[in-house]
Each structure stands twice: as C-alpha cells, then as structure tokens.
Design goal:
This protein has three helices and three strands, in the order E-H-H-E-E-H. The protein is α+β, with helices and mostly antiparallel strands and 80 residues long. The chain has a three-stranded antiparallel β-sheet with strand order 1-3-2.
C-alpha cells in the first residue's frame, strides 16, 4: 500500500476497462472532456500506475454518464 492506496498498473487498467489499448489510455489522459475524471497517472520507475479508488470513481462516472445519455436519447425518441 502506498499513500495513494492500492495501485493498478496501466496494463491491468486496460484489461479492466474492457481490453482497451495503451494508446486509448494515452488519448484519455489528454482528452479535455475527461480531465479531472480520468485516474491520475502515477509514474514509478518508468511504469504507469493508477489509484484503485480513482479507477472505481471513474468507472462509476462513466456508467452514470452513459445511463444519463441513454435516457436523454430515449426522451428525444419519445417526443418525436
């Protein structure tokens, strides 16, 4: 355990997010829409790690965002 809590390596983070590529993670790190939401990179000896707590928060945010977007698109269809 570190002061950041449990750390997850970037390859494990990629698998956990549905086998996304490391390039996707690189893009997400720089996406203005995700800044402040994406788990912060922690570099240790040239390897990237992320906090378990931040990953769980990010996944919850993604789920709630997707649910909200889906319910809004359903409302638009119902109005038409």
């Amino acid at each position: 355990m570190t002061r950041f809590g449990e750390l997850v390596s970037d390859p494990d983070f990629c698998k956990e997010m549905g086998n996304i590529t490391s390039m996707t993670v690189w893009r997400w790190d720089r996406d203005p829409a995700l800044i402040g939401r994406m788990p912060v990179r922690i570099k240790i000896r040239n390897r990237n790690y992320r906090s378990r707590v931040e990953i769980d928060n990010f996944k919850s945010w993604l789920l709630s965002s997707a649910t909200k977007a889906r319910s809004e698109s359903g409302a638009k269809v119902a109005e038409a």
